[in-house]
Amino acid sequence: MMERDKKRPHILLIKEMPKIHCARGPRSCKKCQEMKEEGESYCLLKIFLDGGEIARPMTEIIVDNESILSEYDVLDRFKDITEAKNYAEENDVEIVYS
Ligand SMILES: [Zn+2]
């Protein structure tokens, strides 16, 4: 993670995400396509709330009933929903079900 990212306003969320290799995405990157085919898994996400550069992967989240498109970092990837739920309870992190 970049140094400047540590100070940016953010929230933590758990959300089911496809595996992403880079910002080019599955349409233009073969490695991304391969990882996408492995399917989605629950991830601990750090969602940045101050907008950002479109060069980084973005995800849509609901904050105060408003849908926003945000930059995020994947901090962790859970093996299954049980592991995700345990983490959510222990750390008071919300799980977003799609
Ligand atoms: Zn890629």
Characterization of this structure:
The protein is built from two helices and five strands; from the N terminus they run E-H-E-E-E-H-E. The protein is of the alpha+beta class. It has one domain. A five-stranded mixed beta sheet has the order 3-4-2-1-5, with helices on one face. The model has no long low-confidence stretch (mean pLDDT 86). It binds zinc ion. Zinc ion binds next to helix 1.
Detail the topology: elements first, then pairings.
Blueprint: E1 10-18, H1 30-37, E2 40-48, E3 58-63, E4 66-77, H2 81-91, E5 94-96
Parallel strand pairs: 1-5
Antiparallel strand pairs: 1-2, 2-4, 3-4
Features:
5-stranded mixed sheet; single chain; globular; alpha+beta; 98 residues; 2 helices; binds zinc ion
Strand order of the largest sheet: 3-4-2-1-5
**Helix-strand pattern, N to C?**
EHEEEHE
Structural classification: alpha+beta
Largest sheet: 5 strands, mixed
Which compounds are bound in this model? Answer: zinc ion
Are there runs of 5+ residues with pLDDT below 50, and where? none
Mean pLDDT reading: 86
**Count of domains:** 1
The count of β-strands is 5
Helical percent range?
10-25%
Which assembly state applies to the chains in this document? single chain
Approximate shape: globular
Strand content: 35-45%
